[in-house]
Amino acid sequence: MVSASFLSTPLCRSTSSRFHCCDATLGIPRSTHVPGLSLGRFPEKSPTLELCPRPRRIILVRHGQSQGNVDESIYTRVPDPGIELTEKGWQEAEESGRRIRDLIQGDNVDDWKVYFYVSPYKRALQTLHAVGKAFGRDRIVGVREEPRLREQDFGNFQDREKMRIEKDIRLRYGRFFYRFPNGESAADVYDRITGFRETLRADIDIGRFQPPGRRTKDMNLIIVSHGLTLRVFLMRWYKWTVEQFESLHNMSNGGMIVMETGSGGRYSLLVHHSAEELQKIGLTDKMLMDQNWQKTARPGELNYDCLTSGPSFFNHFESND
Prior knowledge:
By secondary structure, the chain is an alpha/beta fold. Helices cover 31% and strands 12% of the residues.
């Protein structure tokens, strides 16, 4: 277990750099100049466009309990995108919506809003509908169905015995790189989530969900998706290694993980969650140290002591101290 003392101890030094990570560049104008091209035809790319405040939170929600969670044989006769929620799954999703609403209302602000991104799979769409019951029409800015947020593809209709064998092989091969026949590996999901992350960044920068004159720093983005897909999203956002990814576990059905802006403006899991909560889903001590740094770091700063930095990959350095 991680001692509580490390959370209050300076762990990492930071500095500004001309090199930025994906989180650091949110809200920073990007060059739009193309020789011979007028940007008047593309108003969202105008260099004079007012920058939007970044959303206060990005909330990741796993769909409620599905038919496939209680009876894997359903995958042999129902397409994965058509798997529905169970009655318990609907209840879990509605409870998730109430928890999110209560979390946001705890900010004690008047102009908060929510915007949803959702996987097109039926159980995710049903979860969205149930979560949405917690919000009035004036709070929901919009919804975007996003196919790149779909579940990992396991290969059309599934034969139970073959799938059992494939999952055993995956454990020996490695959970990140093993590709199911006619399906995907987690590495394939990583590739499409990278594309989605770029779309999300662009939407935040141009204010797709914040009309001019009605922009607020109390916007909350809610991503409704699937267990592995959300783990890969976190891996991509925080630049976790393959080894770190393979230490992670799914959140519970209807569970949520909250990425919230810290005092410096970056998103950290430790603003809302405790270290103990994050350890339960597999974050290691070093991953928690980086999250602690994220709580106070400013956009444009890099954590040079993060595990993904160069020195952590080599073992031939010796201290002269």
